[in-house]
Amino acid sequence: MATRREELVSVAARLFAERGYHGTSMADLAEAMGVQKGSLYSLTGSKQELLVLVTREGAVAFHGALDAVPEDDEAPLERIRRALRGHLAVVAAQVDAATVFTREWRFLEEPERTAFRAERRRYEERWGDLLREAAERGALRSDLDVPAAVLLVLSAANWAYTWIRPGADTDALADRFFVILLDGVRGYATRPA
Amino acid sequence: MATRREELVSVAARLFAERGYHGTSMADLAEAMGVQKGSLYSLTGSKQELLVLVTREGAVAFHGALDAVPEDDEAPLERIRRALRGHLAVVAAQVDAATVFTREWRFLEEPERTAFRAERRRYEERWGDLLREAAERGALRSDLDVPAAVLLVLSAANWAYTWIRPGADTDALADRFFVILLDGVRGYATRPA
DNA sequence: CCTACCGATCGGTAGG
DNA sequence: CCTACCGATCGGTAGG
User: Fold this and answer.
1) How many domains in chain B?
2) Domain region containing A101
3) Is the pLDDT confidence value at A189 over 50?
4) pLDDT for B188 beyond 60
5) How many Cα atoms occupy the beta-carbon half-sphere of B76 within 13 Å?
6) Is residue A26 part of a domain?
7) CA distance linking residue B181 with residue A67, whole number of Å
8) Which of chain B's residues have a Cβ under 8 Å away from the Cβ of A181?
9) Distance (Å) from CA B135 to C1' C10?
10) Which of B158, B182, B183 is facing A159, going by the closest CB pair?
11) Cα–Cα distance, B55 to B45 (Å, whole number)
12) CA-to-CA distance for B27 and A129, rounded, in angstroms?
């Protein structure tokens, strides 16, 4: 059973995602909670605190998805596929938190803003590790431009909040991306030998 | 020589990109223009009008980049490469307008908001056409998942405003993406025959 | 959780 | 382009 505080955090996630942090007023949140504006301050210290909690929720979810990727060193490509599935699953299950994590985080005040950037960088580096390890194990082509590949896959992941609908088959979507990333859009015929 | 009105539009692009539409006040814009707040209303009718102008600037720039792609039907892959170069070049040359176009458009009021969405859909469809035509001409693998490929390439394009720095060699960056999109991250060795 | 209120700021206008 | 101002709303607080 969700506490009123937890309810408020999830309402904040929804409205921050819909209208933006600065486009959402405490009065908006109060109305969505069915209480008067002043009453919110028994549940949170400030609007900014709600932003901190929602972005943190996103960070935890995305890192958690990567944590769930099996450690199996024998299948580095499969690990990448799992990571992509995991990321898209988080976006579908927690669109609002994912949206705030990806788009509204910049309205965090210091020092949380800097801490957030470090946290996000850490997430991106974990993706970099996944690809780098796969390359080192020979599962990726030896002449691969790893930084560009990381940026490409993170672009797909980070843009997902704009189009994923809750309830979508994210595993299938992730696999469709994965197939293209693996072997490219070009036909075998025109591929160099 | 830029008029004061044009200056205001470009200042609005910068601040809307930096602080968000709702995070930017008319007082902020006035300060950046070096005038009093009330004076802005001889240059624009409203803050919302500025948002309309900036998003429109982005739309014109992105469509213009696609218009500049040569019509040569003999080289459908080259056209895709050119389109990617063009998009990233716009992002680098007009980061602020590109950012507002990609992220702040949702604060447009009706009916401009709906019109914007149609415009953006048209842009995405032009990308879809590029890939579909390439597929039809046999330049892409026959079993390609075209919708997923379009979404992947648009993800890379739409996410670019978050990391591209003005002055970057966007042609080289576009080509690095293009190479990966073409033949994938996997090595030749493990590729099916 | 409510009522009542705070000073500050919001986008915008009038008149010059 | 300025000064002076409008009513509305902002995030937040006091006291119950």
Assistant:
1) 1
2) 46-190
3) no
4) no
5) 19
6) no
7) 28
8) 152, 180, 184-185
9) 53
10) B158
11) 16
12) 45
Residue B9 in domain = no
- The residue behind tokens 């809307």 is B16
Contact flag A155-B159 (C-beta cutoff 8 Å)? yes
* Long-range contacts from A138-141, C-beta under 8 angstroms, 24+ separation: A138/B187, A138/B189, A139/A76, A139/A77, A139/B186, A139/B187, A139/B190, A140/A76, A140/A77, A140/B185, A140/B186, A140/B187, A141/B183, A141/B184, A141/B185, A141/B186, A141/B187, A141/B188
Burial label, B75 (beta-carbon count in 10 A; 0-12, 13-18, 19+) = middle
How far apart CA A2 and CA B78 sit, in angstroms, is 55
Residue A41, in any domain of the structure: no
For residue A81, give Cα distances in angstroms to A77, A134, A176, B176.
Answer: 6, 12, 10, 22
Comparing CB atoms, the residue among B141, B184, B189 nearest residue A181 is B184
A170, part of any domain: yes
pLDDT per residue as tens digits for the range B42-82: 999 999 999 999 999 999 999 999 999 998 878 999 999 99
Tens of pLDDT, residues B16-30: 999 999 999 999 999
Distance, CA of A80 to CA of B97 (rounded, Å): 34
**What's A117's domain CATH number?**
1.10.357.10
